[in-house]
Every structure is written in structure tokens, then in C-alpha cells.
Design brief:
This protein is α+β, with helices and mostly antiparallel strands and 645 residues long. It is built from twelve helices and 18 strands. The strands form five sheets. The protein has a six-stranded antiparallel β-sheet. A five-stranded parallel β-sheet has the order 12-16-17-3-18, sandwiched between helices. It has a three-stranded antiparallel β-sheet with strand order 13-14-15. It starts with a strand and ends in a 28-residue tail after the last strand. The model is unreliable at 636-644 (pLDDT under 50).
Length: 645
């Protein structure tokens, strides 16, 4: 049976007033002159239910919030949503009795968040599914939302003669079809999961195919050799590398052996260098000592000379009594001198021991002995210095001889091996570089094989999933009879209205859209908006009745229609067709009663009367937005959303 969806009331709140509109009958007709707010009221339904509604400036400038009492499934709920600002991004869920806030539901999906759409779909018992949509050539799974389902509920005035359930909007077309399939049991969660899987596999196949193409192009451009040729060349190079490494090891072994033979000579050279260094240090020490001995001998010579001069001065000058200065010849007679001091130099007179000839002789003898001893030690040190210099020269000669011998031996035996090792090492490095390059190429070939294996696996998996889709579709094929029955009822209803130029009317089994005279809905534009509007109304009314009549069809039980007589004229034929459309409204309202709800916005009162019909009437003195003066008919050209209300 149809999923139970009903709007009980709508409360519009402004800064000055609040107005509640109730919809208690199976059908409610909203009437009034153009510009009084009929279409705006319908748009506020959509806004309160979380949709993106086109609200007029009058609503945006004056209405603060809207509150809808709704029945979804078995749950009665009150939804309140602000008109503008951040608060409009959420909807408050109120207790239907106390109007206390129960929770606030976001409109946009987020991690772990239950949105208003989730809550409504769960209440309706309508499956929450993801469809295998694609965008820009890639899989972009999309959630089916309550707003998508509401497209089957709401016939907007600006779309009623242009498209059926938004079928011309490419972004919505896939969702429209999947929603129809869900409503008629032509698909289920398992089948939709299979379709998402095959869409993802298609992306993987495209990606791996592109990767295979790129790698293959790289290989073709970088090296013309095949993988088999590279494999054979790699084997040959590795064999050559093995021989080259063996030769290199042999050269290094020979070098090590030759180096071992030179060890004794090197050790002898090191010992000779060490001895020569010690000899040089000994020469330096002996030279320093000889220089010190020279200084001692010179000092003793100086002391003997000084002693000799002093004795001579004493012998020759002591008998004289100076009366004038021997230097400047000035008189010393008047000079005041302390006792026991020299009249000339004014120093104390020497003691007797200092001028005693015997003491002077003893001092001369001592100094002479010191001189002889110092000269003897000096001669010994000079002999030691000469011996050290000779030994140092001998050791330096030994060092030079050993170095020449080692250089000759290295030049004749070691240097050629170093050259050979360098050449062999270079060859080994070149071989390894070539092997690395070929190995990388072979890795690219291995990558190609891996990609090819992945492509085969993906194709096999796609074949398996497509087979499963086909089998699952076959299992659900029985529901196709429902589409056939729906098509029959649609054709009967539409042809019963006796529209001009309408001979046959069916619903396409692939697109689920009306086809008139074997032509798509768009072709009706040439026949006039009235005919297109009638076809669209017949399609939606047939869906609604079919859902109410079939327990396994999940069509919503609510239908909101804006301007059903759009593009109808005032001649007798047009009035007759309008009466037939309203007659269908009355028939359905009388037959199904509270099981359905029709809410219709129209300029003029309905051409029929029925106890099943309720009314909401607007005029310029009492427009839809409460507490706001309407500018009146002179400004009524400001239409709402392309409609006349």
C-alpha cells in the first residue's frame, strides 16, 4: 500500500502574528487571486520538510519560521524550521502534544548524524539506499533522500507543463528511476548493492586499463626489447658479472699477498725512521749541551780577565792620592767624603782581603782550574755531538735506501695490480648498472603482467556481478507486470479526458515516463501547455491511486499540486476538461478518504463541490503571510515561483 504521508497543519510565524492553516479533509483547495500566497504556502510545505524551496521576497522578509504537523507512517511529528540564517540548516523536532523540543535534526549528512531525511524515511518505512550514480566518468554513490522522494509528491506550477518528476534534470534522472524501481519493487538493497559494485569495478577497470596503456607506452618508448629478450640478456650479463667479480677477487687476493710480502720491509723502514728521528733528537740535545759548555768556558775566561785587570789597577793606583778627578781634572780637595770611602768614586773602601795579593792569587788559581775542567768537558761534549751527527747521517741514509727499495718494489708489483683492480671494479660497476636498468625494465614488464592479471580479474568479477544483476533482475521481473498495469490505468484515465491530439498513452517500461502517441512527454510542448499539464496530472494521479490499490507499491499517499488548470483557456472545452480533472480529484477523495491527501492551489474555486474537499481562501486583505499588508492587485504581477498564486 502507499506509504502514509500527510500534512495536518502548517503554522506561519512573523514578528507581528502567527497563522495556522489546517488540512483536515482528504482534499484541500487553496484559492485566491494571484500574488496572495497560494504557491508560497506550498513552498513552505517543502521548506518545513527540509527541502530547498524557492521562497518569495515577501516570505523571506517577513516570515521568521514555519511549523508543520505531519503524519509519516504511524508517527505524528511537528517540524519547525527557520526561514533564514544558520538556524535554517536544521529542523527542530517537537513533541506533538506539548510542542517541547525533542531534538534538532541536521539537513546535511555527517559522520554518525541522523538527518531529517533519515528520520522521515524511517518513519515512512521507505528504504534508505545508495544508488550507483556516476559523475564526470567516475562512480559517485548518492543517497536517496526524502527530498528526492518528495519530487514524486509535489507538482510545481513552473514544472507541471514542462517535465515529469524532474526528468529533464540530468543530475536527478538516475535518482528518479531508482525511486520508481524501489516504489514498484523492481529493485531492492541487494540489487542496488550489485549495481554499486559494478560501477566501482568499472572505475577500477578504467584505471587499470589506463595504467596498462601508460606503462606499455613507457616501455615502447624507452626500450624496444621484449621481456623474453631482456630475460636472456639479463642472464648473460649476470654470468659476465660473476666472472668479472671472480677476476676482481683474484686481483685483490694477489694484492693482499704482495702487501704481506712487503710487510717486513715496511716494518724495517718504520724502525729505521724511528731510529733516525731519535738520532736527530740526540744531535739536537748534544748541540744544546755543547753550546752551554761554550758559555761556561767564556764566563770563566771573562772572570780571569776581570781578576787580572783588578790586580793590575790595585798595584799601580793604590800608592797615589788623587787631588783632582782623573777624568775631568777637577779639584777634589773641597769634596766632602765619608770616612772609609773612596774620594773619587765615593764607594766604601775595599776590605783587606779584596786587595790582598795572596787572596787574589788563590782566586786566579781556582778560576784557572775551573777553566781547565770546563774545557775538558766541552771537548767531551763536542766529541759526543760529532758521534751523534755521524750516527744520524747513517740512519738517514738507511731510511732513504729502504724507501727507494720499497718504492721500487711497489712500482713493479703493487701499482700494476691497483690499475687492474680499478679497471675490473669499473667493469663490475658498469655491469651492475646495466643489470639494474634491465631489472627495472623487467619490473615494468612484471607490472604490466600484474595489471593484465588485475584487468582479467576485474572483468571476471564484473561478469559475475552482471550475471548476478541479471539473475536478481529476473527474480524481480514479476514486478514488471505492475508497470504494465500502471500503464493501462494511466492510458484509460488520460484518454477518458478526451484531450485533443491524444490517441494513445502508455508508461514506458524502461524510463517509467508517459509516452503519448509513441512520442516522449517533451513533444507535447508543441501541442500546448494544457495538454502537457493534463498528462502530468494523469501520471501523478495514476501513481497515487495505484499505490493505494496495491499493498506492495510504496508510492506516497500525498499529492501537492500547484495550478492544475495552468494554460487552460476559458472556452467550453477547456472548462469541461478542468471539470473532468477536478472530478477525478473528487472521485479519488471520496473513494480513498483519509488514506490519501490532495492539496491543490488554484486561482479560482473548484468547479465541483464535495464533502471531501476543504478550503483555504486568500485575498488581498487576507494574504497567506499574516500581519503583512498586501500591495493589492496593482502589484500582483509579482508572481510566486512562476505560478499565479
Amino acid at each position: 500500500m502507499a506509504v502514509n504521508l500527510r500534512i495536518v497543519s502548517l503554522t506561519v510565524t512573523t514578528a507581528e502574528a502567527e497563522q495556522t492553516y489546517r488540512f483536515d479533509r482528504p482534499a484541500t483547495v487553496i484559492t485566491g487571486p494571484i500574488g496572495t500566497g497560494k504557491s508560497s504556502l506550498l513552498m513552505l510545505f517543502k521548506h518545513a520538510l527540509g527541502g530547498s524551496a524557492m521562497l518569495t521576497p515577501a516570505v523571506r522578509e517577513n516570515v521568521l519560521s514555519v511549523q508543520a504537523e505531519v503524519v509519516a507512517g504511524d508517527e505524528r511529528m511537528v517540524l519547525r524550521r527557520a526561514i533564514e540564517g544558520d538556524a535554517a540548516e536544521t529542523v527542530d523536532l517537537l513533541d506533538p502534544h506539548s510542542l517541547a523540543l525533542e531534538r534538532t535534526l541536521p539537513l546535511r549528512a555527517g559522520d554518525g548524524l541522523t538527518t531529517l531525511s533519515d528520520h522521515l524515511l524511517d518513519a515512512l518505512g521507505f528504504p534508505r539506499e545508495q544508488i550507483a550514480a556516476r559523475r564526470e566518468g567516475s562512480a559517485r554513490p548518492q543517497n536517496l533522500t526524502f527530498n528526492d522522494l518528495y519530487a514524486y509528491v509535489y507538482l510545481q506550477a513552473r514544472e507541471i507543463d514542462r517535465q515529469v518528476v524532474g526528468h529533464l534534470d540530468s543530475w536527478f534522472e538516475t535518482k528518479r528511476r531508482e525511486l520508481f524501481r524501489l516504489m514498484f519493487g523492481l529493485t531492492d538493497s541487494a540489487l542496488m548493492e550489485l549495481k554499486r559494485t559494478t560501477s566501482q569495478l568499472l572505475d577500477k577497470l578504467k584505471a587499470r586499463t589506463a595504467e596498462h596503456k601508460n606503462v606499455s607506452a613507457f616501455l615502447a618508448a624507452s626500450d624496444p626489447r621484449s621481456d623474453d629478450e631482456l630475460r636472456a640478456e639479463l642472464k648473460q650479463l649476470r654470468d659476465t658479472l660473476g666472472r668479472a667479480e671472480a677476476g676482481l677477487r683474484s686481483l685483490r687476493t694477489e694484492l693482499q699477498e704482495q702487501t704481506a710480502a712487503d710487510t717486513a720491509l715496511r716494518q724495517e723502514l718504520q724502525n729505521a725512521i724511528r731510529s733516525a728521528r731519535q738520532a736527530e733528537e740526540e744531535v739536537a740535545a748534544a748541540a744544546d749541551l755543547v753550546e752551554a759548555r761554550h758559555a761556561v768556558v767564556a764566563q770563566v775566561h771573562l772572570d780571569l780577565s776581570r781578576l787580572a785587570r783588578s790586580a793590575t789597577a790595585i798595584d799601580q793606583l793604590s800608592p797615589f792620592e788623587f787631588v783632582v778627578c782623573p777624568r775631568c781634572m777637577q779639584s777634589l780637595a773641597a769634596r766632602s767624603v765619608e770616612d772609609d770611602h773612596c774620594l773619587v768614586c765615593l764607594q766604601p773602601d775595599p776590605v783587606e782581603a779584596d786587595i790582598d795579593p795572596a787572596a787574589i792569587e788563590e782566586t786566579r788559581t781556582t778560576l784557572q782550574q775551573q777553566l781547565e775542567d770546563a774545557q775538558r768537558i766541552q771537548q767531551s761534549d763536542e766529541a759526543h755531538l760529532q758521534a751523534a751527527q755521524e750516527r744520524s747521517q747513517q740512519l738517514s741514509f738507511v731510511v732513504s735506501s729502504l724507501r727507494r727499495q720499497l718504492d721500487a718494489q711497489t712500482r713493479d708489483a703493487v701499482a700494476p695490480r691497483f690499475d687492474a683492480i680499478a679497471e675490473a671494479s669499473s667493469r663490475v660497476a658498469a655491469l651492475k648498472a646495466t643489470i639494474d636498468a634491465i631489472t627495472q625494465l623487467r619490473e615494468s614488464w612484471a607490472r604490466v603482467r600484474t595489471i593484465e592479471a588485475d584487468i582479467r580479474a576485474i572483468k571476471a568479477e564484473r561478469a559475475r556481478v552482471n550475471k548476478a544483476i541479471k539473475e536478481k533482475s529476473e527474480q524481480l521481473k514479476a514486478s514488471q507486470t505492475l508497470v504494465g498495469d500502471l500503464s493501462t490505468e494511466f492510458g484509460q484515465l488520460l484518454t477518458g479526458w478526451n484531450l485533443p491530439w491524444v490517441d494513445t498513452a502508455v508508461i514506458d517500461r524502461d524510463t517509467y515516463l508517459p509516452v503519448i502517441n509513441s512520442q516522449p512527454f517533451e513533444s507535447l510542448q508543441a501541442s500546448g501547455g494544457g495538454i502537457a499539464t493534463s498528462v502530468n496530472l494523469a501520471y501523478s494521479l495514476t501513481l497515487l491511486a495505484f499505490g493505494l490499490d496495491h499493498a506492495d507499491v510504496l508510492v506516497p499517499s500525498l499529492l501537492v499540486i500547484d495550478s492544475p488548470r495552468k494554460a487552460f483557456g476559458n472556452n467550453d472545452s477547456d472548462r469541461q476538461r478542468a471539470a473532468e480533472i477536478y472530478s477525478r480529484f473528487r472521485t479519488m477523495a471520496d473513494a480513498y478518504g483519509e488514506r490519501l491527501q490532495l492539496i491543490i492551489a488554484d486561482n479560482d474555486p473548484p468547479p465541483i463541490t464535495s464533502e471531501s474537499f476543504g478550503k483555504v481562501e486568500f485575498d488581498y486583505d487576507n494574504p497567506m503571510v499574516p500581519g503583512v499588508d498586501h500591495p493589492g492587485p496593482d502589484h500582483a504581477g509579482r508572481l510566486e515561483n512562476g505560478a499565479d498564486g
